[in-house]
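Continuing the batch. This is chain 6 of the set; chains 1 through 5 are on the previous pages. Same settings as before, nothing changed between runs. Recording input and output for traceability.
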Amino acid sequence: MAPMVYRITPYDPADLDPGAGADSTCIAYDSREGVAAACVAAVAGFALDAAVGQVTIDNPMAEGFFSFSVLAGRGGNGLSGLFPHDSVGFHDGARVPLATGLALLRAMVLREGAWCRLRADNGFFVHVGDRDDIYVGGGWDQRNAVSRTRMLGLFAERVARSPYDPALDETDASRAADEEFWSEVGALVAARGGVLLEERPTGNDYRWHRLTTAHEVEAVYERLTPRARLAVWPDLTDDVEAMRDTVGRGERIHLLVRQYPGGGFSEARVTAPGMGRADVPYPQITVDPGHRVALVPLEGADRHPLLAAVLPDGDGVVRARWRTHRSRADERRTFLGSLRVGEAVNGVVATGLRDVGVYVHLDDDLGRYLGFLRVPEMSWTRFDSVDDIAPIGREIRAEIISIDFVQEQVSLSMKALEPDPWQNYADTHKVGDTVSGTVTKLAPFGAFVQVEEGIEGFIHLTELDDRDVGHPQEVLAVGDHLRVAILIVDHQRRRIALSLKQARPE
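Output for chain 6:
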């Protein structure tokens, strides 16, 4: 019998904007915990009706399903307290109690980082989607569970199948990490003097091993995570100039792998100049004494290791079927990587952040909410309200002034596409020139004078009159038209100092 599949959501699916993409949750921040608790209770009802006590983890990811940003996860990507240190036990094929499976479900609903599919031997399964949707099903009568789900305030609708059905997976034909594979690894170690072994126990989670002897190959093999994906790369180096040259010439995102003198490893993302800020800004790639580094391409199309394989089960059979689907987070990272600082882009103002700035849709799919336009970058001239320049719904054109892979944000500037009126004024006027202006504001220590649209200078108290002046209102009033002399043009601080008394005829 074909399984009955239900889609569970915290909102009526008919109300979802079909163009909203999947890059941000529709659940309000202050209600996320309550929604997560309701989802866990609903799925627990399905599981108990199916007499499920254990579930199997399938295609786990420590991060990278909902967001590729290292800042997105919290609390160890939702795995802290569920598994030992380094997430041992969170791997493909691991069998865990139902309670652990429900805790994983909660972490996924809260988008804490981790993702996986859950299944049981009797056909029960749970898949969490990237649009606040959960797919649960199996081959038993689910009417009671559906009723309880609706009583919890959730929506449940029958669907033909889960979009995350393993039958729909795209997978690669990975070879088994068998005796022949390890023999080839040993040969590479002998020929090259050392190689870097990449172990991926889950999606987007890396463990690194430097292999320089046959004994190290055997020792590492004994402690690899079951069903992990393996890749062999050229050895690490201390040639930092070569690393910088490789990053500078390539239009791609790399993992910069570092090995410390004590043997420990870390990795960080680096990008070419113009692509934006990653974990380590170019060219701040350094190698401290005793450290070694390697560059590993991050995007699948750029990865060409010396060897690659998947660890088989104990009987020698490869049962892990790792999905090669690019997640929405992967696609969003690629979109971000296609942008360049200095480019002009079109966008639509999406939402505001009071007096800080506005978020901008750079396209209708992967670029939603990706751009951010701060108030100081909206115009060279003064304005009373953000709505005067960038109201919600308006299409704008702006220049990319920075790209941040850490924050997943593109900083924009509308005024960068317009001539700088202050610079133009400074270039066409010099110290000693006498110009006309209008008093715009009085301060205890002087007066501000507009000398051109959007350009203001300042007259200090001592430059108002030959006599001592206690307050500028003794000499001036807002709105006064006058002639002033230019005393200082400070290009660095973008300030113009003026004098009223030096502009008076002798």
